[in-house]
Amino acid sequence: MSGTFLVRDIDYYKQQIYISDPENCLAKRLLTFNMSGSPFSPSFSILYTFFSCPNDVVLPSSYRSIRCLNNSTASFYATSSYVSVELMFPSCQIVKRLHVPYSFGDMEFSSIMLEWLSPNCRSCEMEYLRCGFKKKSSLEVKCLGAKKPGQLSSGVLAVTISFSIIGAVSLFGTCIAIRVYNSPRQRHSAIAAATVRQQPIELVAAARGLDQSTIETYKKVELGESRRLPGTNGIICPICLSEYASKETIRLMPECDHCFHVECIDVWLKLHGSCPLCRNSRK
C-alpha cells in the first residue's frame, strides 16, 4: 500500500514514529496495509478481526463501530477478542483478520506506532551529536560534530532526552516520506507535514520559509541509471531516509550542494530558508 500519512510524533532516541490517516479513517487503510520494502516495521502487533453487521443488529456497548466504514445498511467493528465472532453474532460477516501495529492507549485506530532499525543514530543522540552516513553506498553511520564543554553525559540522558532532539525534530518532523516499494525500481513516496508534540508553537514561530518561486531557482536534477550525485552526497535522502532511484528528481541546495528529494526539500524550504543539514542559506 502507498499513500500519504500524517506524522503525529517522532521519538528519535527510541526510533519510533506515530502516523495517522489524513482522511481520519486509518482502519480502512489498515485493511490493505503492507509494509514490505519499507524501512518501517511494527514494534509489535495484535490480531484483530474486522467484521460487519446489519444496522438492525444490536451489539454490546463494549463494541464500538468504526464510523468511517459504516454505510446505510451495515456497521463495521473490530475486536481483538479470541471469542468467535461467528458464534456470538451469527448474522454478522467477517471482513478480514489481520495483525495491526499496536499503539499504547489507542483503541480507536487513530494512529499506529512503527519503528525503524536502520540507520541507527541512537549513540549520536545520546551524545548530542549529528548523525551522518560513513559511505554513499551503505547505511553505516557516524557521529558528526564535537561535544560542547559542560554538556551532560549519556548517563543522565534519560532525564533530558527531550531537549537533545528538538533540533532533529524540526527537520524530520516537517517532512518524512514512508516509501513502500511496488517494484525494485519504482517507489511511491508518502510525504507528511508533521504536527510534532514537542514545542510545536516555538518551531513554527522560528521558521522563516521561502516562497515557491525562490525554491524553483534552486537547481533540479533527474537521476540516471547510475544515480550518480555531486560532491559527498550519499545514495539516501537525509530527510525521508529512502534510497534515491533512477528517474527521480532531486534538488541541490546552493552554496553547499547538499541533495534531497524535491518533494522532501520543498516542504522543508517553505518553512525554513536554509539547508537542513548545514543550515547554510543563499546570501
From TrEMBL:
EC primary class: transferase
Where the record annotates domain RING-type, the positions are 237-279
Query: Which keywords does this Swiss-Prot/TrEMBL entry list?
Result: Membrane, Metal-binding, Transferase, Transmembrane, Transmembrane helix, Ubl conjugation pathway, Zinc, Zinc-finger
| GO molecular function per UniProt | ubiquitin protein ligase activity; zinc ion binding
Task: Write down the EC number.
Answer: 2.3.2.27
Q: Name one GO cellular component term.
A: membrane
Q: How does it sit in the membrane?
A: Single-pass membrane protein
Q: Which reaction does it catalyse?
A: S-ubiquitinyl-[E2 ubiquitin-conjugating enzyme]-L-cysteine + [acceptor protein]-L-lysine = [E2 ubiquitin-conjugating enzyme]-L-cysteine + N(6)-ubiquitinyl-[acceptor protein]-L-lysine
Which positions, given as ranges, span the membrane?
156-181
From what superkingdom does this record's organism come? Eukaryota
The record's listing under Gene3D superfamilies reads: Zinc/RING finger domain, C3HC4 (zinc finger)
Its annotated pathway reads: Protein modification; protein ubiquitination
Compartment(s) where it occurs, according to its Swiss-Prot or TrEMBL record: Membrane
Give the record's family classification. Belongs to the RING-type zinc finger family. ATL subfamily.
The record's listing under PANTHER family reads: RING-H2 FINGER PROTEIN ATL20-RELATED, RING/U-BOX SUPERFAMILY PROTEIN
Name the chain's protein.
RING-type E3 ubiquitin transferase
**Which species is listed as the source?**
Raphanus sativus
